[in-house]
Amino acid sequence: MYSSKYESIRGRWSGKTYTVLRKLGAGGIGEIYLVTDDNGESFAMKTGRDLVSITKEYGSLVKLGPMCFTPKVYELDDYEKNNKVYHFFIMEYIEGYTLRDALSKEKLTFGNKLDIVRIVAKVLKEINDQGYVYTDLKYENIMVDKRNGIIRLIDLGSITPIGERVKEYTPMYDRSNWNAGSRTADLSYQVFAIIILLVSMLLNKDINPEKEQLERVVDRLRRCSFPKDLYDMVNGCLDGSIADCGSLYDRLGTVCRCSFAGRRLTYVLNAVIAFLSMLLAVLIRTVFA
User: Fold this and answer.
1) Residue 152 forms beta bridges with which residues?
2) What is the set of domains in the chain, with CATH numbers?
3) What is the pTM of this model?
4) Which of 139, 148, 239, 258 is in Cβ range 3.0-4.6 Å of 100 for a Cys bridge?
């Protein structure tokens, strides 16, 4: 929409002017830009031509405003460009990096990945408790705030009331694409998306429902040396026996604790074996001296 820096946007109703610095990204309903106001303060601006969708996302951000994991939203307005009306809202600019960036730049352990997904499950439970499902969960919509390390969600356009049809989604996380259920915004839809995120992180690759079968993906995971509790949890999320984010959060905690206990036991056993080996070597030298 904007090809050059420093183009100005003037809100038709507020009269406020914003200067475009650069494009941050694009979603299903519009584009997001880094802008500054007349005082030089930085914000993110989401703009598009679909009034209903822009207004809906703005309303979702207002409702979720008190929660620390969503961007603060400030105003809704519109402007004209080339004789066309565009709608926009101004929100907090989150300086940070996405989960995909984190995975590509940092070597995350099994425990790190479980911890991240557990935080995501807790965040999404809070959204679910407000009567909504965040249907477009994906690496690019999960950000780590550089200022405080808090995980934040961006692109709230997919927030959908529980029970309604899902309109915004990414195929990898959508259970309907995997022939694993309907495209309805219910609590189990949310759980399915989270567990696919975890499976993808553990396999260190994206998985494609158009090229792979879910059973084979799970089999590939099973061939890795992960704790049995992990496989039980994954299967529970896929078959619907773990059907809400609260239950998933608890199960992730159990897997984390079991994994830690297993690593600690392995460390102790290795230490004992090393000690016995050293003792045996001393004994052999003593006998044959």
Assistant:
1) 143
2) 8-91 (3.30.200.20), 96-262 (1.10.510.10)
3) 0.82
4) 139
